[in-house]
Fold this protein.
Amino acid sequence: MVRRTFLSALLIVLLSCTIVGRASAATPQAYKYLVTGTCKATVGSNGTVTLSGSTLASQAVDRITVVITLQYWNGSRWVSLQSRGLNAYNTWTVSEFWSVIVSPGYWYRALCEHSLYENGVSEYGTSATDPFHY
């Protein structure tokens, strides 16, 4: 029962829009510059989905990036459909958004990759939206 509760809690955390990171250490607290990343998907009319993402650093960094990928569930794994990204230089934040028309009958999500480079230090993390059906 404890294991099932733990796995359920872990799944909830992984499906939320909080950053799940990978840097030189195993925990997000080990980041030196990367503060957070966001990832959102807004479903509009006629299958239009607006995807947005941002990356936030604790200070201006040499390069900061966000890449947003639209994915669909094929029954066994998430498959990437389209990606768009944006780099910014000598700043502390970057944001990107774009819209796409999706086909009905599938589960979708947005996956965002957040990265930065500052003075020889490279940091990376991901965030994702909850899956949504259209």
